[in-house]
Amino acid sequence: HHKKMITSGVAPKVIQNYVYSRPPPWSETLPTIFVITPTYTRPVQKAELTRLANTFLHVQNLHWVVVEDSPRRTNLVSNLLEKAGLNFTHLNVESPQSLRVGGSWIPSHKPRGTLQRNLGLHWLRDSFNSTQPPEGVVYFADDDNTYSLELFEEMRYTRRVSVWPVAFAGGLRYESPVVSPAGKVVGWKVVFDPNRPFAIDMAGFAVSIRLILERPQATFKLEGIKGGYQESSLLKDLVTMDGLEPKAANCTKVLVWHTKTERPMLANEGKHGFSDLRMEV
Amino acid sequence: MKVKLKNVFVIYFLVSVIGLMYALLQLGQPCDCSQHLRSASDLMHSKDKKISQLLSEVKRLQARGKGPEPEEQALPIIYAITPTYTRLVQKAELVRISQTFLHVKNFHWIVVEDSPVKTQLVSELLAQSGLRFTHLHTETPKEHKHKENDPSWLKPRGVEQRNLALQWLRENRELSEEGVVYFADDDNTYSIRLFDEIRSTKRVSVWPVGLVGGLRFERPLVENGRVVGFYTAWKPNRPFPVDMAGFAVALQLLLANREARFDLLAERGYLESSLLQSLVSIEELEPRADNCTKVLVWHTRTEKPKMKQEELLQKQGLGSDPSIEV
Questions:
Q1: What is the value of pTM for the model shown?
Q2: Which residues in chain B have their CB less than 8 angstroms from residue A54's CB?
Q3: Which GO terms label this protein's molecular function in UniProt (chain B) (predicted)?
Q4: Is B191 an interface residue toward A (CB < 8 Å)?
Q5: What is the spatial distance between Cα A196 and Cα A232, in angstroms, rounded to a whole number?
Q6: DSSP A128-168
Q7: pLDDT tens-digit readout, A48-62
Q8: Is any Cβ of chain A less than 8 angstroms from the Cβ of B213?
Q9: How many CA atoms lie within 13 A of B137 on its CB side?
Q10: Binding residue per annotation — A242?
Q11: Are A26 and A61 in contact (CB under 8 A)?
Q12: Is the separation of the CB atoms in A203 and A117 below 8 Å?
């Protein structure tokens, strides 16, 4: 059963095949999509990574860089990555206490995943020669979002930095770049702090490998970053607004959703745990 | 002995000429190279064999892309029944589970909307999904419907929709067709391996479900390959204390018991039992997932997205473009 979908009358094609849990064969000519996913241990982690893997198995030439917020690489993530069948790199770096996602009910306002994303960038810069960069793009995919297959084909040929709308970001149905009739990004259709240099969610942009390698000092900043400015802290060292490439039919289609998974109610585990800890969940 | 340079040159010249003449005389002479030829020929044969092996592998893979192979056509079809309803995260949920379902051979998705009509969103999504599907709809009667902010446990959900799917199967499938029915809610998370476990169901099979019932997991207790009880902390005295995601039913069993369905009036937590008790006894349950010791499905739930800014904008008549589908 083979179905091709041409999007918006231009190049990117999405092929939906019965894949049977193996990725499409690696192509020597297709640009590689490096997906950097920070992750941390909590009850829904395995579920999130499982469904992400099921999605990524459909994308050709995808390399998954999973970075655990942990002092050691955990068995859960190691085993999952080995069995998934994807091309992957497994890294880890522990966030200092103040930045860690805590067990409390109050969500942390500190930016999360920063150290982990930066480690992913560091690995890329270590692994590839900036004089002969591979064709490809870097995308920061958090483990609880939802990604359409079309999105990956939109980002694949990014020359510098490409952008698109993200559903459920910033308290809106979707946040989106504003694109002029000439096809240039001229502003941000957002309500939350529209004066951010790049009023865009982590899931709303991708950067070409070449640019990442050309600007080794460009990283996400840790200190003094207000909520919502994480993305700007990286992008300001990479590109200016008029250098952005709008995708998704000039930013009129939603191809990625900022979903969040509920914290499961585990009250019946009680204080000392009830279920067998040897069973991995 | 003193070696004069001139002599060195002369000797060099003579040796070269002799060598050259010898080589010229050898040209065209038959030689015994049979050993080399044989090993080169063997090498070529083995490479040829490898090439034809690879070619047939390529053909096989190409054929796979075209449709089921003969042995796949014999695989029982898995019918996944997914009730769904319009809300902000609906499209995202359906997109991501469809991405999982694309990995399952002989899969048939029955999507039942809680709606008086088939919505464009779901129709288009199904058409583009690449999956074999049936698109149904039925609206939950008002008195059984949730209101906007009702907690999820208040009334059983998806009952009419699942029952409609069962009715469709009974009207459109024969007893002779092998299949297994699984109730796959649109917000759970399914591993690919789960479907191998589902596929072998003879009557009703069961397995653990993660993150449900207030526990890390609930699961049937298995001794000597039989289910002898259930590990659960919530209402353990239910006839079948299993979650909707924790069992599958052979199609033939449902076709042979045409009255078996979910009870709209079932007490909270008893929905699964209302179906299963007319189909099977506990002793007959088939444990899967390594005697119910592996978690292959999780009862994840998705947060309702915060729409504070959207609501503010809409009050000012500046809400987001409704023609952009989310």
A1: 0.83
A2: 96, 99-100, 103, 191-192
A3: galactosylgalactosylxylosylprotein 3-beta-glucuronosyltransferase activity; metal ion binding
A4: yes
A5: 7
A6: S-TTSPPSEEEEE--TTSEE-HHHHHHHTT-SSEEE--EET
A7: 999 999 999 999 999
A8: yes
A9: 13
A10: no
A11: yes
A12: no
